């Protein structure tokens, strides 16, 4: 998620800006690690259904790769649309 | 936690920062739920390719738009007049 | 969720009471924002299934409204029953 | 974070507050899971009206009661004798 | 989840060790309470489907007990395998 | 929050602790998702007994192994070369 969408820091005093910025950084780290976990869970659930082998099979690997790529592209597209709507809402205020 | 000479008190400041933090968490969660829900509604799960096709892309755009409208609608229903953003 | 169900502050020293009360406030804000997000996700998922249009259709809107109202009424009823059970458990101690 | 002249030390106090916070989070989560689960089990999802009907209401009451019993039962099984409340 | 899997504190200065250790304790308390909630939700969802009675029926009770035991055994087994893989990954570094 | 005479500054220290906390949260969440997903994939839900049978046990072992491999694979795809551990 784009940092700018989390808040506008321009009008804050310097000390608060630093603190707020640190808070945003922490939220972003947490969010990206959670996103990583969700992506793994989703692609595993969608692609791996047989447990006859201990090793990931070739077609499972391909499926996971496509799933991850597709999800990331999806996520970027949603981010763009979401930012547009946010923009529109902000200018209405 | 430093004392502030003017403006809001230390306690008020904590509350303001706490509120800002919750609001940011809310936005992140909204975005994540929207992303996950629209993926489930729009994207083919057999993963025959790694590109989103035209149908999926247009579904995603409309899904985001409708999710946004539902978010606003529920905000109105809850009497706040607008969603918590 | 009712604030009183989160804890009994009566026996605490004043400074701790203020701190605990602030903590409860923060939890409640977080909880109500999460509840809001869940409600939107649930009613969207249950009511919106067609993506031929960009705009929410009339019957989707009606569905979302009923879904939200129903969920809120449900949530209030659960809250009452939950409080009764909590009460019962507390008096048993 | 102020020093306390008597009673628990600053570190102990942090632990007590931390524990209280976790317990409150636990209660909120219990309530939310219960609410969501009983909605799924009891409420008709076609949303033909915005009222809960008699059947739904009685289902909800029993669902909450049974969820509570399961919560206690699992608490006993885990050897704590009671759920973490 | 085993505490040792969350981090290696041996090389830290004493004050940091205490702080880090406290952080791990807090995370573990939160995690075990969440695990408890998930277990209850899972076993309730899998075992209770009839709401003709207010009281848990005997066969529902048995089901919940087996579900909880099975999940705990499962969780312990996963923990062992997970630790082995973590170990292997650590020695590769 | 105490001042440190040598080594990292107070601010840097906060960031290091914050990062360590997020990493631990990540590991806990990874473990919980893995546990839940493999339970869904491998364990029979009629609960006719409280023991895991041989088939379930072997399924669990392979499920954990494959989940781990998927975790590494996604880490590679995201260009970090390894998952965030």
Automatic annotation (TrEMBL), chains A, C, E:
<dbReference type="InterPro" id="IPR050673">
    <property type="entry name" value="Mito_inner_translocase_sub"/>
</dbReference>
<keyword id="KW-0999">Mitochondrion inner membrane</keyword>
<dbReference type="GO" id="GO:0015031">
    <property type="term" value="P:protein transport"/>
</dbReference>
<comment type="function">
    <text>Mitochondrial intermembrane chaperone that participates in the import and insertion of some multi-pass transmembrane proteins into the mitochondrial inner membrane. Also required for the transfer of beta-barrel precursors from the TOM complex to the sorting and assembly machinery (SAM complex) of the outer membrane. Acts as a chaperone-like protein that protects the hydrophobic precursors from aggregation and guide them through the mitochondrial intermembrane space.</text>
</comment>
<dbReference type="GO" id="GO:0046872">
    <property type="term" value="F:metal ion binding"/>
</dbReference>
<keyword id="KW-1015">Disulfide bond</keyword>
<keyword id="KW-0813">Transport</keyword>
<keyword id="KW-0143">Chaperone</keyword>
<protein>
    <recommendedName>
        <fullName>Mitochondrial import inner membrane translocase subunit</fullName>
    </recommendedName>
</protein>
<keyword id="KW-0472">Membrane</keyword>
<keyword id="KW-0496">Mitochondrion</keyword>
<keyword id="KW-0862">Zinc</keyword>
<dbReference type="InterPro" id="IPR004217">
    <property type="entry name" value="Tim10-like"/>
</dbReference>
<dbReference type="Pfam" id="PF02953">
    <property type="entry name" value="zf-Tim10_DDP"/>
</dbReference>
<feature type="domain" description="Tim10-like">
    <location>
        <begin position="25"/>
        <end position="84"/>
    </location>
</feature>
<dbReference type="GO" id="GO:0005743">
    <property type="term" value="C:mitochondrial inner membrane"/>
</dbReference>
<keyword id="KW-0811">Translocation</keyword>
<comment type="subunit">
    <text>Heterohexamer.</text>
</comment>
<keyword id="KW-0653">Protein transport</keyword>
<comment type="similarity">
    <text>Belongs to the small Tim family.</text>
</comment>
<dbReference type="InterPro" id="IPR035427">
    <property type="entry name" value="Tim10-like_dom_sf"/>
</dbReference>
<keyword id="KW-0479">Metal-binding</keyword>
UniProtKB/TrEMBL annotation, chains B, D, F:
<keyword id="KW-0653">Protein transport</keyword>
<dbReference type="GO" id="GO:0045039">
    <property type="term" value="P:protein insertion into mitochondrial inner membrane"/>
</dbReference>
<keyword id="KW-0496">Mitochondrion</keyword>
<dbReference type="InterPro" id="IPR004217">
    <property type="entry name" value="Tim10-like"/>
</dbReference>
<keyword id="KW-0813">Transport</keyword>
<dbReference type="Pfam" id="PF02953">
    <property type="entry name" value="zf-Tim10_DDP"/>
</dbReference>
<protein>
    <recommendedName>
        <fullName>Mitochondrial import inner membrane translocase subunit</fullName>
    </recommendedName>
</protein>
<keyword id="KW-0472">Membrane</keyword>
<dbReference type="InterPro" id="IPR035427">
    <property type="entry name" value="Tim10-like_dom_sf"/>
</dbReference>
<keyword id="KW-1015">Disulfide bond</keyword>
<keyword id="KW-0999">Mitochondrion inner membrane</keyword>
<keyword id="KW-0143">Chaperone</keyword>
<keyword id="KW-0862">Zinc</keyword>
<keyword id="KW-0479">Metal-binding</keyword>
<comment type="subunit">
    <text>Heterohexamer.</text>
</comment>
<comment type="similarity">
    <text>Belongs to the small Tim family.</text>
</comment>
<keyword id="KW-0811">Translocation</keyword>
<comment type="function">
    <text>Mitochondrial intermembrane chaperone that participates in the import and insertion of some multi-pass transmembrane proteins into the mitochondrial inner membrane. Also required for the transfer of beta-barrel precursors from the TOM complex to the sorting and assembly machinery (SAM complex) of the outer membrane. Acts as a chaperone-like protein that protects the hydrophobic precursors from aggregation and guide them through the mitochondrial intermembrane space.</text>
</comment>
<dbReference type="GO" id="GO:0015031">
    <property type="term" value="P:protein transport"/>
</dbReference>
<dbReference type="GO" id="GO:0046872">
    <property type="term" value="F:metal ion binding"/>
</dbReference>
<dbReference type="GO" id="GO:0005743">
    <property type="term" value="C:mitochondrial inner membrane"/>
</dbReference>
């Amino acid at each position: 998620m784009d940092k700018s969408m989390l808040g506008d820091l321009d009008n804050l005093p310097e000390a608060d800006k630093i603190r707020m910025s640190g808070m945003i950084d922490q939220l972003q780290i947490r969010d990206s690690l959670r996103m990583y976990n969700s992506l793994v869970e989703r692609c595993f659930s969608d692609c791996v259904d047989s447990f006859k082998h201990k090793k990931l099979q070739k077609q499972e690997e391909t499926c996971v790769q496509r799933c991850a790529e597709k999800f990331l592209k999806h996520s970027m597209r949603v981010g763009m649309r979401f930012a547009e709507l946010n923009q529109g809402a902000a200018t209405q205020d | 936690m430093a004392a502030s000479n003017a403006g809001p008190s230390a306690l008020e400041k904590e509350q303001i920062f706490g509120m800002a933090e919750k609001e940011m968490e809310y936005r992140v969660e909204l975005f994540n739920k929207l992303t996950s829900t629209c993926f489930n509604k729009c994207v083919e799960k057999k993963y025959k390719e790694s590109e989103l096709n035209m149908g999926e892309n247009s579904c995603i755009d409309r899904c985001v738009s409708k999710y946004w409208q539902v978010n606003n609608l529920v905000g109105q229903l809850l009497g706040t007049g607008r969603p918590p953003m």
